[in-house]
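Re: weekly structure request thread

Next one in the queue (140 aa):
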Amino acid sequence: MSTPPATITNYILETLRDDSNLSAIKTWFFGEPSTSQFPSSPWGWAEWTGGRQQPGATSNAMNTEDQFYIVIVVKHPDHEQGEEDTLSYVENTESALAADRTLDGKVAYSWISNREKQRPFNDRSIVAARLTLTTRRRKT
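Done, posted below.
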């Protein structure tokens, strides 16, 4: 049996909320929030973004790779400090997720497959980082 993406997303959020190195991030959303929900900085979200499926070794087996975005948003009046804070949160997020590559047995393996920095809203006081977590799971 394969673990649904919603269960994996919830586990990712639980892992990030429980990590003491990310305790400054008080609010984590399931999926991208609307702009009316933006809380105080820093904050973040995790969301399933899809993936690919391939037939497995048997007729009813399926290999699935799913991707999840993990986004961290920092607003700071000193843009250099905002950059430093964001990089620190990225490193700590990577460490938290690398500590349990199977996400408590929910997937066969997971890894950060992409990292990127963004400047939303053309505002130098806001820095966002988006990590892509790729997971591999098998349905038999």
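The chain has a mean pLDDT of 91. Residues 76 and 82 are 5 Å apart (CA to CA).
Next request, please.
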